[in-house]
Structures are given as C-alpha cells and as structure tokens.
Amino acid sequence: MNPTSHSIPTNEGKLSRQAVRLVATTLILAQGCTTTTIVKVALRERGYNVYQAEVAKRLFEVAQSEGWKLDDNGPVRIFYFPSLKNAILDAI
C-alpha cells in the first residue's frame, strides 16, 4: 500500500464534548478557571476549526454534566471546579 494514500487525521470534524472537556479540564487545573474564549483559542492551537458559539454551547454542556461551577457576568462565563474556587478563596 502506498504510504501517501493514508489520510492524516485532522481535528476539522464536529467538535466533541470530549475534546472540550479535555482542554477545559487541563486549563482549569493549570490556571484555576477558564472561559469559552480561552478554550476556543486552545482548541484552535490544537488544530480545531471552531467558533465561539460552538465552544460556548459544548463547554456549558460539559460543565452541567460534570458539576462544574460558573460565574456568568454577561459577556463572559468563567468555569471552575467547585473545590478549586474554594481553595483559591481560602488562600487569599
């Protein structure tokens, strides 16, 4: 079989909840919280061709199913793990 006939997998398909969950979890663990914009940028850096509305919808679904907390101040939703927010507030 010709090695050039194999297609290289890309991330241009439908954005999965798994991909959003993985990126958002990584960001929350590294930074304590994340936003849809930060997740969108991280996904694009990983080769996903995504738009803000799509990421916002998926991230909200993930947050609800995982029991994450969010602060919604209108234009920005900040997502975090409940235990991390408490630990951060206690440290201040």
Features:
92 residues, mainly alpha, Arc Repressor Mutant, subunit A
Q: Would you mind describing this structure in some detail?
A:
It contains four helices and three strands. The protein is mainly alpha-helical and about 90 residues long. The protein has one domain: Arc Repressor Mutant, subunit A (Orthogonal Bundle), CATH 1.10.10.10. Strands 1-3-2 form a three-stranded antiparallel β-sheet. The chain is globular, with a radius of gyration of 16 Å.
Compute the number of strand runs: 3
Pick out the low-confidence regions: 1-10
How many distinct folded domains?
Answer: 1
CATH topology: Arc Repressor Mutant, subunit A
Distance from N terminus to C terminus (CA atoms, Å) equals 61 Å
Strand order in the sheet with the most strands: 1-3-2
Given the helix and strand composition, which structural class is it? mainly alpha
Sheet with the most strands, sense and barrel status:
3 strands, antiparallel
So what's the CATH class? Mainly Alpha
Strand content: 5-15%
Q: Rg, please?
A: 16 Å
How much helix is in the residues?
40-55%
Order of helices and strands, N to C?
HEHHEEH
